[in-house]
From TrEMBL:
Protein keywords: ATP-binding, Glycolysis, Kinase, Nucleotide-binding, Transferase
EC number assigned by the record: 2.7.1.1
Pathway(s) served: Carbohydrate degradation; glycolysis; D-glyceraldehyde 3-phosphate and glycerone phosphate from D-glucose: step 1/4; Carbohydrate metabolism; hexose metabolism
Listed name of the protein: hexokinase
Domain called Hexokinase C-terminal: residue spans: 246-473, 684-746
GO cellular component: cytosol; mitochondrion
Biological process annotations from GO: glucose metabolic process; glycolytic process; intracellular glucose homeostasis
Reaction(s) the record says it catalyses: D-glucose + ATP = D-glucose 6-phosphate + ADP + H(+); D-fructose + ATP = D-fructose 6-phosphate + ADP + H(+); a D-hexose + ATP = a D-hexose 6-phosphate + ADP + H(+); D-mannose + ATP = D-mannose 6-phosphate + ADP + H(+)
Family to which the UniProt record says this protein belongs: Belongs to the hexokinase family.
Every Hexokinase N-terminal domain range: 9-205, 484-678
Keyword Nuclease listed: no
Keyword Secreted (UniProt): no
PANTHER family, A to Z: HEXOKINASE, HEXOKINASE-3
Length: 746
């Protein structure tokens, strides 16, 4: 009742409440910002940077070996030795040590920072007596970087209290590797860099189910106390915890083809959204309250990181402080008490806010926190403060849900799924420490992305083990890549190899064109008696047949000044006919032609007919072609060595179909050249690369020794599929090719 009777408090709570319709709008804006960051054209102007991480796989349980991890945190460096057993259960053995980072290091020269990190590595390895074998290192670097490889990343900007000189714009992997080399740790190789959010995703992938999204909200907690800690298979214990980060970020496995900033187009790649800057362009102005504006103005980066200032645990205490200050000024709180202390920055911590919203002890915590500030709160004051704290934290959860829903919907759409089922790794003080935050995050995400089912997985060990998994996956994929490269090496032809094949092809072509050498050529270079290409003046109505597979097509083609019009029908050729007698095959073809002409009302017309016969033939004229051999599963008897046009005419006589006027027989390659030549008279080559392959081209008659005459040109059907049958390509044949050859019918 005390709350309901106070309009000032009601207005404050209303301002801090984001209705579902507004959350839908925020989700839509986040989606737009994400797409802007993914696009090569708009990436430079994007606030949500969508940075590629070059991590293209999650653990599969086979990773094994010793790995070193270095994690640069807000106030310390954590080094880990992780042993993966590769037994599928992904329960690693881990040792780690914490080194506190001196304040002057965080704000000094960049070289000093990386030298300090390398010294920590040296001390850590000396302490565990590590062997001198090659040791891969994964580097957790929780700052915005522009990665161009998994082991190459330029720092975009510092945050979290760091401001080391001569690092921004530099490759931080190289800086660390150089510092490690100065410590004479030449066996340590930095193979992967990631931020803390990626580490969280990989950590949550270690439970057996792949995790493809990660979300950090508030302070991460890393096991900490300066000194040594062991857990996993070596020694069971529960190390103390230390805050590692206070902002918010997310990452997810995106379809690689949509990450336009990289050349990779297949598979998936983890994208670091860097969504803390979402809203810096004003897209969240209708969400911001006067309290948020005050927090922003007092921050070290006014106008920047708008989304993070609404969600990150570093700012929630400040939002509450400004709300309480405003309510006190309106005489809605602390009447009779001096509230000057509330005008002091950071006097109210987020941890206190989280304690105040607790259902059981929240009121007592509120009183204790307020009295510690010198205030004299009433029961009503404590109740109103608790409501403000709950509103601020609930709003943060709802906005996080809008961002997460945008990611999930994007994944569902880009994968063309009706429903996305995915695991989401979550870390951060807000998620772990506040049941209501978790509930709001889960429920609102479901409302905003109903087409997605997301299971939220809490991160057990921050980023350390996840970084080890990134490193291990990197090594596994590199080993696979080397094996694939080894297997595929014989298939990779150099320019020299291709030039040699070109010379061999040219030699076989010349043999095929020669009158005396044609019979011994593997490239037959068969004359087609087609001596010209279309010039665009052709007109008329024609029948066309197309036989080259299990289907047979009959067409009527009408060529007019305004273009080409066609009608066609496809007829199936049963296997029994394909492999039966020649008479049965050609009788079936005539029956199909008659059926088509009847349907098209063409039975009374005698139209010129062109026959596309896609099998090797020795043409003796434009309408005379002797079948050399069957291919493509055909084996009809009594056809090889016979003129296929004559066989077609005989079948027409048997079926008493007298209106058939065959004027040309060509193969499909010649048909391709002529079809394209109608649109472009410059087309003088035809090429087919499909189930089989062949080529044709217009050759100078003086070079065609198998046909009389030297004037003009003639289309040559190369029949190059048999190129190499004489052994000239044996040295580029691989074991794979030989296995395929042995299993074929020819």
């Amino acid at each position: 009742p005390a709350l309901m009777s106070c309009p000032q408090v009601q207005r404050a709570l209303l301002a801090l409440t984001v209705p579902l319709e507004m959350l839908q709008a925020v989700k839509g804006r986040m989606l737009q910002a994400m797409r802007k960051g993914l696009s090569r054209q708009t990436h430079a102007q994007a606030n949500v940077r969508m940075l590629p991480t070059y991590i293209c796989s999650t653990p599969d349980g086979t990773e094994k070996g010793d790995l070193l991890v270095v994690e640069l945190c807000q106030s310390h460096v954590r080094t880990l030795w992780v042993t993966l057993l590769g037994d599928g259960n992904q329960s690693p053995q881990v040792m780690h040590k914490i080194f506190d980072t001196p304040g002057d290091i965080m704000k000094g020269k960049g070289e000093a920072l990386f030298d300090f990190i390398a010294q920590c590595v040296r001390q850590f390895l000396a302490g565990i007596g590590s062997p001198q074998h090659r040791l891969p290192l994964g580097f957790v670097f929780p700052f915005s970087c522009r990665q161009t490889q998994l082991d190459k990343a330029e720092l975009i900007s510092w945050s979290k209290g760091f401001s080391c000189s001569d690092v921004e714009g530099k490759d931080v992997v190289q800086l660390l590797q150089s510092a490690i080399n100065k410590q004479e740790l030449y066996h340590v190789d930095v193979v992967a860099l990631m931020n803390d959010t990626v580490g969280t995703m990989m950590t949550c992938s270690m439970g057996g189910e792949p995790c493809e999204v990660a979300l950090v909200v508030g302070e991460q907690r890393a096991p900490h106390v300066p000194g040594w800690w062991w857990w996993g298979g070596l020694r069971q214990c529960s190390p103390p915890l230390l805050p590692a980060d206070t902002g918010t970020n997310s990452c997810f496995m995106a379809e690689a083809q949509q990450v336009e900033m990289v050349e990779e187009t297949s598979g998936r790649m983890c994208v670091n959204t860097e969504w803390g800057c979402f809203g810096d362009d004003g897209t969240l102005s209708d969400v911001l309250t006067p309290y948020d504006q005050c927090v922003d103005q007092e921050s070290s980066s006014p106008g920047e990181k708008r989304f993070e200032k609404l969600v990150g645990s570093f700012y929630l205490g400040e939002i509450v402080r400004h709300a309480l200050t405003a309510l006190a000024a309106e005489k809605a709180l602390f009447i009779g008490s001096s509230v000057a202390v509330l005008r002091t920055k950071d006097v109210l911590k987020t941890q206190q806010v989280l304690e105040i919203i607790d259902n059981e002890e929240g009121m007592a915590k509120a009183r204790g926190a307020l009295e510690a500030l010198g205030l004299r709160p009433s029961e009503r004051d404590c109740c109103r403060v608790q409501q403000i704290c709950r509103a601020v934290v609930s709003r943060a959860a709802a906005l996080c849900a809008a961002g997460l829903a945008a990611i999930l919907s994007h994944m569902c759409q880009s994968r063309e799924l009706e429903r996305l089922v995915v695991n989401v790794g979550v870390d951060g003080e807000l998620y772990r420490g506040h049941t209501r935050f978790r509930e709001i995050l889960q429920s609102v995400t479901g409302l905003l992305a109903p087409e997605c089912t997301a299971t939220l997985l809490p991160s057990v060990d921050g980023t350390g083990q996840g970084a080890a998994m990134v490193t291990a996956v990197t090594l596994r994929l590199a080993a696979q890549r080397r094996e694939v490269d080894r297997l595929l090496a014989p298939l990779r032809l150099s320019r020299t190899d291709l030039e040699r094949v070109q010379v061999l092809m040219r030699r076989e072509m010349e043999l095929g064109l020669g009158r005396e050498s044609n019979a011994n050529a593997s490239v037959r270079m068969l004359p087609t008696y087609v001596c010209g290409t279309p010039d665009g003046t052709e007109r008329g109505e024609f029948l066309a047949l197309d036989l080259g597979g299990t289907n047979f097509r009959v067409l009527v083609v009408r060529v007019a000044q305004d273009g080409i019009r066609m009608a066609s029908e496809i007829y199936v050729i049963p296997t029994a006919i394909m492999q039966g007698t020649g008479e049965a095959l050609f009788d079936h073809i005539i029956e199909c032609i008659m059926d088509f002409q009847l349907k098209q009302d063409l039975m009374e017309q005698v139209l010129p007919l062109g026959f596309t016969f896609s099998f090797p033939c020795q043409q003796l004229g434009l309408d005379k072609a002797v079948l050399l051999s069957w291919t493509k599963g055909f084996s009809a008897s009594g056809c090889v060595g016979q003129d296929v046009v004559h066989l077609l005419r005989e079948a027409a006589q048997r079926k008493q179909h007298l209106g058939l006027k065959v004027v040309a027989v060509v193969n499909d390659t010649v048909g391709t050249m002529m079809s394209c030549g109608y649109d472009d008279p410059k087309c003088e080559i035809g090429l087919i690369v499909g189930t089989g392959t062949n080529a044709c081209y217009m050759e100078e008659m003086q070079n065609v020794g198998t046909v009389e005459g030297e004037q003009g040109r003639m289309c040559i059907n190369m029949e190059w599929g048999a190129f190499g049958d004489n052994g000239c390509l044996d040295d580029i044949f691989t074991d794979f090719d030989r296995l395929v050859d042995e299993k074929t019918i020819n």
